[in-house]
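Q: Structure tokens for this one, please.
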Amino acid sequence: MQINIDKKSGIFIAVIAVLLIIIMAMGMSGRSDSSFFGMDHNDGYMMNENGSSSVSDLTGSDIMFFQMMIPHHQQAVEISDLALAKSKDSELLALAREIRDGQASEIITMRAWLDAANAEIDMGHHMEDAMGGMLDDSELAQLDAANGKSFDLLWLSGMTEHHDGALHMTSMIRDSNSAQIKKFGEAIVITQSEQITQMTAMMKRMG
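A: Here is the predicted structure, written as tokens:
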């Protein structure tokens, strides 16, 4: 699927590029990525499906991705809850449940990975501009005030933009050293690309 790069996504990509340059420079100077993100370099562990820990080369980009994607997902969950309270469209309601449940589950997974790596959930500084597709206060207020078809169209448009931002963010873990993390990112791309296609069709249906 071809992803159009809008102004917000362009800002996001530029910020990520700068951050990755910083990470690379730190690595060259002998400073560990993991220490920069509050993670001891001896504690790069992930959890297996059976609950045991195994060593994984968790990079600074992996940690940063989780720290950014968790609040990104949290907003999607909150917006989906709003749709479940306000919309009357059966397809939109089903999609909102799917997004809420799927992303809530992914939040649990990402928080567990950060915990296993002894990394902070919060990056500790302002990164909203780097989280592509996040709805700002004005957009959230418009969504909260809308009703009926107007709400449905605003929600679909906002969630499409939100998903598009998430797709760009997965570039951070595309080359992760962990096959498990790479698979996680690939699953996000597949799921959210399919949902973007569905939402685009729904907006056409609603006119």
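A few notes: The mean pLDDT is 80. The chain has one domain: 60-206.
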